[in-house]
Amino acid sequence: MVLTEENILQVLSTVQDPDLKKDLVSLGMIQDLKVDPARVSFKVVLTTPACPLKEMIRSECVQALEKAFDDLPELDIFMTSNVTTSRSNTPLLPGVKNIVAIASGKGGVGKSTCAANLAVALAQTGAKVGLIDADIFGPSVPTMFNVEGEQPAVKNEDGKNIIVPIEQYGVKLMSIGFLTPAESAVVWRGPMASSALKQFIGDVAWGELDYLLLDLPPGTSDIHLTMVQTVPVTGAVIVTTPQKVALADATKGLTMFQQPQINVPVLGVIENMAYFTPEELPDNKYYLFGKDGGKRLAQRFDVPFLGEVPIVQGIRESGDSGFPAVLKEGVTSDAFQSLAESVARQIAIRNAEKNKTEVVQIKN
Ligand SMILES: Nc1ncnc2c1ncn2[C@@H]1O[C@H](COP(=O)(O)OP(=O)(O)OP(=O)(O)O)[C@@H](O)[C@H]1O
Questions:
Q1: Domain locations in the chain as residue ranges
Q2: For labeling, which of 30, 221, 247, 362 is most exposed (least CB within 10 Å)?
Q3: Mind telling me which HAMAP family this protein's record contains (predicted)?
């Protein structure tokens, strides 16, 4: 084969994105192709910086080109990303590409811990990430990010006062805990809580974000409805433990998103506290709350299983000390990084396959 741009594109169109099941050329992922006798260079623009298949895709490109051209010169492949979105044009949060709800049925299953670590793990990949602590009645973000007592600044933009989110570990944060002492938040009535959440969405300078995670309160409440009625939600992640009582509640949480009038895609299930493991003996696993409950829940509802997180003393300590576990190298960090990859991957698949997200209109 002669070394021309056209022929190179033809060869690269035999390489598929395994998740999106289409070839890189028709997906528009090959950009800035330059061919000269001494060098061939191009960019592969992936759908997320957290793409777990990055190396595999690169080596498939190299192999396909080496096979097709005898006289292949130096190859310069630059792997980059542009996070996809499926948002329709709504005036709220115009710069935010994906809004992801992190929900659970039961309280205390580790939803906030997973949300915090996912947010940091995504930011570590280079994505622009925000986290809203929508758990108005029990905000935990200030503690988990070691920013208790901090108060966000207010700035004037186009004649309107807007709140500047607090930034920590590369994540933009907003929590009711920054605005009122935590004790006073618990006496809020439902409508006040809903209007506070609307403020977090509309009156905060979120700017450009690839992923805005919403740490929802446990259960199914007004807050959940407010959220889906206020912004177009890309998808929901359900956190559960493998225990029977948690699974029963997680089922309610999951089916709430799948109700026809809400219809928010479920990106998958995370099984937290999947087993206990002493940090110094990571091969010893004790299934305190039962085994594979989250996996079975995902199978039953035909949604992806995103991964499992063990119970590790360090995760609890990290939460309390305000230094998320994913920041420390080790088994738990690996678990949260691979969860973040799974979530980002499911968002990319969702954006490629499903309709645009709309704000939910609920008729009384
Ligand atoms: N995998 C884990 N290993 C050890 N401790 C964990 C793990 N996941 C969560 N925890 C601890 O369990 C407690 C509850 O976690 P978390 O606050 O994240 O739950 P939650 O589901 O958000 O609760 P709620 O929304 O009801 O406040 C915290 O003390 C947290 O540090």
A1: 5-81, 96-353
A2: 362
A3: Mrp_NBP35
Query: What ipTM, to 2 d.p.?
Result: 0.98
Index of the ligand 1 atom closest to the CA of residue 140: 17
The Cα 132–Cα 216 span in angstroms is: 8
**Can you list the alpha helix ranges (DSSP code H) found in the chain?**
5-12, 54-68, 111-124, 141-144, 182-185, 190-202, 222-230, 244-258, 293-300, 313-321, 331-353
Q: What is the chain's mean pLDDT, rounded? A: 91
User: Is this prediction's pTM over 0.80?
Assistant: yes
Nearest CA to ligand 1 atom 15: 110
CATH superfamily of 96-353: P-loop containing nucleotide triphosphate hydrolases (3.40.50.300)
Domain 5-81: state its class: alpha beta
What is the C-alpha separation between 143 and 178, in angstroms, rounded? 11
Instruction: Compute the average pLDDT of residues 128-142.
Output: 90
Most confident range (mean pLDDT) of 86-90, 183-187, 236-240 is: 236-240
Taking the centre of ligand 1 as the mean of its atom positions, its distance from the CA of residue 322, in whole angstroms, is 13
Q: Rounded to the nearest whole angstrom, what is the distance from the C-alpha of residue 108 to the centroid of ligand 1?
A: 5
Pocket (CB within 6 angstroms of ligand 1):
104, 107-113, 135, 138, 140, 218, 272-273, 309, 311-312, 315-316, 319
* Residue nearest atom 9 of ligand 1, based on CA coordinates: 110
Q: How far apart are CA 247 and CA 272, in angstroms?
A: 11
Residue numbering of the annotated binding site: 105-112
Q: What is the pLDDT of residues 64-102, one digit of tens each?
A: 999 999 989 999 999 999 999 988 767 888 899 999 999
